[in-house]
Amino acid sequence: MPKRLSIAVPTPMSVYAATQAFGSELRVHLIHYYASHPGRQIDAVRALGVERAVVSLNTRALIETGVLTVDEDKVYSIDQDRLDELLDALRRFGEPEKPNEPPRHG
To answer: Torsions phi, psi of 76, nearest 5?
Structure first.
C-alpha cells in the first residue's frame, strides 16, 4: 500500500481501506470488471486496455483491502461481503455526527 498520510484525527481502518479500494478510477474499473468476469489478470488487462504492470499493482492493492480474492488457479473475484462492508463504512463515515454522539474516530 502507498505511504499513509498523517492526519491530525484518526481514520477508522475500514474507511482507510475503502479509500484505498475506491480511490482510483482503475481500481473501481477492476472491481467492476472482476465482479462481472471473475478470471485471470491478463483478461482484465485485455478488457481494460491498461498495461499489465499497472493492473498488477492495482490488483495487489485490492487484494490487500480484501475486496479482491485470488484462488490457487490465479482466478480473481470480488468478495461481495467485504465490498459491501467498505461501502457501508464509507457511507457511515460521511454521515454527520449527532450532537450527543461521541466522535467516530479510531
So the answer is: -95, 140
Taking only the tens place, the pLDDT of each residue in 33-89 is 999 999 999 999 999 999 999 999 999 999 999 999 999 999 999 999 999 999 999
DSSP letter for each residue of the chain = -PPPPP-SS---HHHHHHHHHHSSHHHHHHHHHHHH--B-HHHHHHHHT--HHHHHHHHHHHHHHTSEEE-TT--EEE-HHHHHHHHHHHHHHTSPPPTTSPP---
Residue type, 27: R
Strands 76-78 and 68-70: antiparallel
pTM of the model: 0.81
Question: Does 96 score more than 90 pLDDT?
Answer: no
Q: Report d(CA 20, CA 71) in Å as an integer.
A: 22
Q: Find residue 68's DSSP bridge partners.
A: 78
